[in-house]
Amino acid sequence: MLVKSRTALVRSVVTAVALGLICAGNPAFSEPSHGIAMYGDPALPPDFVSLPYVNPDAPKGGSLVTGEVGGFDSLNPHIRKGRVPWQLRFLAYESLMGRSWDEPFSLYGLLAESINVSEAGDSVEFVLRPEAAFSDGTPVTVEDVLWSYETLGTVGHPRYAGAWSKVASAEQTGPRAVRFTFNVEDRELALLMGLRPILKKAQWDGVDFTESGLTTIPISTAPYVITEFDAGRFVKLTRNPDYWGKDVPFKRGQDNIDELRMEFFGDATALFEAFKAGTLNALRETNAAKWDTQYNFPRVASGDVIKAEIPHDRPSGMTGFVMNTRKMLFADWRVREAMIQAFNFEFINAKLNGGQQPRITSYFSNSVLGMEEGPAQGRVAEFLSPHADDLLPGTLEGYSLPVSDGRESNRGGIRKAKALLEEAGWSVIDGVLQKDGQPFAFDILLKQGSSENQSIVNIYLEALERLGIAATVTTIDSAQYKERVVGYEFDMTYYSYGLSLSPGNEQLAYWGSDGVLTPGSRNLMGMVSPAAEDMISKMLTSESQEDYRAAVKALDRVLTAGRYVIPLWYSKYSRLAHDANLKYSERLPAYGDWIGFLPDVWWSEAEN
Description:
Radius of gyration: 25 Å
Strand order of the largest sheet: 19-18-20-14-21
Number of strands: 24
Distance between the termini: 42 Å
Number of helices: 18
């Protein structure tokens, strides 16, 4: 589908005369570079051989078969419509630059051989590699780049719209050069412009990009192409032996496995049994108790399966049960705090994890970006002080989650929850918590197959019952679940989002007020916080790493004291069980088992 707009005319292929005018009016640029970092210089020099956490001499071959709970009805991860295997967005597409997961936020040339940011930081220019090609052998052109950015930014998935709205113009500045000029001050934009997937424009002539779910698989430049699938059951990707970028330093030692297959199952039990039987050859485990007690089957005992624990330095992110503040019931922070007090984390953690997993204490905990205990100090306090009158209790003074004595009764937590609910106007009459004659009742929405979440909720329901709360649970299939979550049709539901060491523009999609009414945002809690948006703005315009970190820590305080989510646990390492013939380098990336790790830098030593 050709996307037409007023700005598209400016972004079209320019004539030689126009090119001359553009060159005459160039902004002041520094020297073109092989890479870029958010702050300072990228760690790797221009002549680097490969990323530090790969084996540049890894053999090619073998297969990787992984499993997921749920299904899919689309293979285009760039549009709003449909459920897509999440891995496709990262395995089947490439961008102008590639990210090193050993640094907070550094990019190196991939489709582009160089990047050049203007001295004022208000524009960025990329030069394409002459050898860059799509999987069908046709060259990547500036026209493809401009079309991809325009299309994704206007009719693609909402994740692309925010950054595109900050682009004043996109234009060709040479046979293989493209420049993006920005309409706002935002240090991150130059990097974000290097991370958009590049698609082949000609493929979409006369085709509706927004409706292309299973009918048209986007042609890309990636080393893997989709070669077989059965909707909802499996997807197979095959390594392209003629992949254009195998000798690009950023790609050397990556994409070693010949076949990647993703199998889909109705529930976690079926998935685990498939791994035990050898149908799958790699599996991530998130339950510590299960890892210790159920991974003793014959294939582990014989050494055919390895239990690997991969450490990392990334933030904990937030995993838990989110409360939808669009619902009046959860609009009051005291009610949300009562829900947190009633949740007996220590007892549930002991029951399900043997007490091994640490609790998530804030959105950026386990990292240098996490909020510090006690009152806000220094630049953090300075950033937050203009919003003091609107901040919830604990934001400036310090906020921490309750800690129970580990007993099932959780009397202290229940007592505090009752007091908060009474303060908010709720009282128990004939055993029912009510206000103005209306009972306190809500529903917890779960996706089919989430047995661990069901176990957590079952324990939680007993505590809520002691408060006189009538909570119910609705379990639906993945398609219905996505539809309801996208439309914010839930009271409380499971919530899990990872966060990086370089939060930026995406934070507006997570916590920005636009997501209150716009379907499909990550602002599931429906929060409206000028303070949060101000901290994000400060993050994007900070001229020093110190101010940047202070802004993130301040944002962390606003989010955590907002009491939007009942936090669960996280792990300081990932648990990966895999066939013994699958290998990875001993030198691990800072992000550990994250995007760009499995299968990107793994290889197989199985006989072909």
